[in-house]
Design a protein that fits this description.
alpha+beta; 5-stranded mixed β-sheet; 54% helix; 18% strand; 490 residues; 5-stranded antiparallel β-sheet; 11 helices
Length: 490
C-alpha cells in the first residue's frame, strides 16, 4: 500500500517560513496603506467639498471676504460693471463651496447678485449702515462684510454674507474618529487575514506529511510490514520518510529473522527429540538385555557394552554440535580472525587428517591450489572442512571414496571446492542442505549417519567470515560444496 503526497514539491518548509515572515509584514502594510489612502481621500473630499462646514471662525470669513472684495473691486475699475457677471464667474466655485452670498450695488441699484439672501441679511445691512456702511458685523449665526469702493466719482458697495459653521470642528472630529476606527479595524483585519492565510500556507506543508507518517505508523502497528511511503517532495520530510521506509524494511527483516529463529528452534527441538530417541532406545534395549540375562557369554556382554558406548558417544557428539550451533546462533561463540594462507591451511589439513580419513574409506586429494590470503578464524575454518569431510565419509557408497579439494581465484576472493564421488543429493534438496536438521532422507530412519547439524554449523561459520557457501551437484555424480571467502591484503 502506498500513499502519495500531492502538493507543491518545489517549496520547502524553510522557504515557506521565509515567505510567510515577509508576507506577514508586507500584506498588512499594503492593506493598511490602501485603507489609509482611502480614508485620506474621504477626509479631503469632506473638507474640500464644503458639505456645510463653512468657515471655522470670523477671522477666516474676514480674510476670504477681503480677497473676494479685491477681486470685485478690480472688476469695477473702468466702469466694467456691465460685464461684472462674466468677470466674477471665476469665483463662483469659491462662493458655492463656502455658501457665500455676494451683492454689488451702487446708489441703491443692484449691479450684481450671487446667491440667495436671507431675512437676517437685511437686518445685518441695517446694522452695518448704522455703523458707517462698511466693515464687519455678525449676529452669531450670520456674518456680513461690507466694503465701499469709489471709482470715477461713483460709490460701489460690496456686501458679502456667509454663515459660519458652529459644528465644523465637531463634525471634523467625528469624521477623524470614524476614519481612525476604520483604519484600526482594517489593520486588525489585514493581520488576522494574513495570519490565517499564511498559517494555512505553512501548515498544509507540515500537516499532509504528518498525516502520511501517522498513517504509516498505524499500518506498521497493525502488522502491515509491507507498507511503504511514497514521498516525492524534496523537503525536510523527505529524509524522514526515507528513514521510515528503511525502518519498516529493517523491522520486516527482523520479524522474518525472528520467525526464522523460532522455526529453527522448533526444528531444533523436534530434531533433538527425534535423534536422541533412536540411540537412547538402543541403549535401553541393550541394557535391558544385559539385565534380563540375554547376553550370557562374556563376548556377547562385551558386544552389548560396546554398542551402548558407541550410542552414548553418538549422543555426546550430537549434543556437542547442538551446543556449538546454539552458541553460534546467539553470537556467543568466539571469533578470532587472522590472516591465513588458505592453500597452506588446506595442505596442512590434508597431511594431518589424510591417514585418519583413509582408514574411514575416504581419500583426500588437493588439486590446483592457488596462493590465497584470507582473513578467517583457523579453528572455524578447520571445523567447516571437517564437517564437510565427515558427511562425505558417512554417506559414501563405495568402499573407498574420494574427496577432491580445489582452490581458485574468483570475484575478488577465493573459491574453495570440496567435491566427493558419493551418491550425491537430489537437485531439489541442494538449497536446503544448510538448514538445521535437514536430511535428504525424509524418513529420517538413519540418524547415525548424520545429525543434520554439520552443514548448518559450516554455513554459520562461513557467514561469520563474510563468505558464502553453496551446494552443487558434483561432476562425478557426487556432492560439491563451494566456499567463497573475500581476499585479504597480505
Amino acid at each position: 500500500m502506498k500513499i502519495k503526497a500531492i502538493f507543491n514539491k518545489n517549496i520547502t518548509i524553510k522557504k515557506r517560513l521565509v515567505i510567510s515572515n515577509i508576507l506577514m509584514i508586507i500584506v498588512p502594510v499594503v492593506i493598511t496603506s490602501f485603507i489609509g489612502i482611502v480614508c485620506a481621500g474621504i477626509l479631503w473630499f469632506v473638507v474640500t467639498s464644503g458639505s456645510g462646514l463653512g468657515f471655522n471662525d470670523s477671522e477666516d470669513f474676514y480674510k476670504a471676504s477681503r480677497a473676494i472684495s479685491m477681486i470685485v473691486e478690480k472688476s469695477l475699475q473702468g466702469e466694467k460693471y456691465a460685464n461684472l457677471a462674466e468677470d466674477l464667474a471665476g469665483i463662483s466655485g469659491i462662493l458655492d463651496k463656502n455658501s457665500i452670498v455676494l451683492s454689488v450695488d451702487s446708489s441703491g441699484k443692484t449691479l450684481y447678485q450671487y446667491g440667495s439672501a436671507t431675512e437676517a441679511d437685511g437686518i445685518l445691512m441695517e446694522a452695518e449702515a448704522i455703523l458707517g456702511g462698511k466693515g464687519f458685523v455678525s449676529n452669531g449665526t450670520r456674518e456680513l462684510y461690507v466694503q465701499q469702493v469709489e471709482n470715477n466719482g461713483a460709490v460701489y458697495r460690496i456686501a458679502i454674507f456667509a454663515s459660519p459653521s458652529k459644528l465644523s470642528y465637531s463634525i471634523l472630529k467625528v469624521v477623524l474618529v470614524l476614519l481612525a476606527v476604520i483604519l484600526l479595524i482594517a489593520i486588525l483585519f489585514s493581520i488576522l487575514l494574513t495570519n490565517r492565510f499564511l498559517t494555512k500556507f505553512v501548515f498544509q506543508k507540515i500537516e499532509q506529511p504528518l498525516n502520511i507518517l501517522s498513517d504509516g505508523v498505524r499500518q506498521i502497528s497493525d502488522g502491515n510490514l509491507e507498507h511503504r511511503i511514497e514521498y516525492d517532495c524534496q523537503d525536510e520530510f523527505a529524509p524522514i520518510c526515507a528513514d521510515f521506509n528503511e525502518m519498516a524494511a529493517r523491522l520486516k527483516a527482523s520479524v522474518e529473522l525472528t520467525d526464522q529463529h523460532e522455526q529453527s528452534r522448533k526444528e531444533l527441538l523436534a530434531g533433538i527429540s527425534h535423534d536422541l530417541r533412536s540411540p537412547l532406545t538402543s541403549i535401553r534395549a541393550y541394557v535391558e538385555g544385559l539385565l534380563d540375562g540375554i547376553a550370557k557369554t562374556p563376548e556377547t556382554q562385551k558386544g552389548y557394552l560396546e554398542i551402548i558406548k558407541s550410542k552414548a558417544e553418538d549422543i555426546d557428539r550430537m549434543l556437542s554440535k547442538i551446543f556449538l550451533f546454539s552458541k553460534m546462533e546467539l553470537g556467543e561463540y568466539p571469533d578470532n580472525p587472522e590472516l591465513l594462507r588458505l592453500d597452506d591451511e588446506v595442505r596442512q589439513f590434508i597431511r594431518a587428517l589424510g591417514t585418519e580419513y583413509e582408514e574411514k574409506g575416504l581419500v583426500l586429494s588437493a588439486n590446483a591450489l592457488v596462493p590465497a590470503a584470507v582473513l578467517a578464524d583457523p579453528d572455524q575454518l578447520r571445523r567447516v572442512m571437517t564437517n564437510i569431510m565427515e558427511n562425505s565419509a558417512k554417506y559414501k557408497t563405495k568402499d573407498t571414496g574420494t574427496l577432491t579439494i580445489s582452490l581458485w581465484e574468483e570475484n575478488g576472493g577465493y573459491c574453495l571446492s570440496l567435491c566427493d564421488d558419493g551418491p550425491g543429493v537430489p537437485n531439489e534438496a541442494l538449497p536446503h542442505l544448510f538448514e538445521v536438521f535437514y536430511r535428504s532422507d525424509k524418513s529420517r530412519q538413519n540418524p547415525h549417519r548424520g545429525s543434520g547439524l554439520g552443514l548448518a554449523i559450516a554455513a554459520n561459520g562461513i557467514q561469520r567470515m563474510n563468505g558464502t557457501i553453496e551446494a552443487k551437484a558434483g561432476k562425478n555424480g557426487g556432492l560439491e560444496i563451494v566456499i567463497w571467502l573475500p581476499k585479504a591484503e597480505e
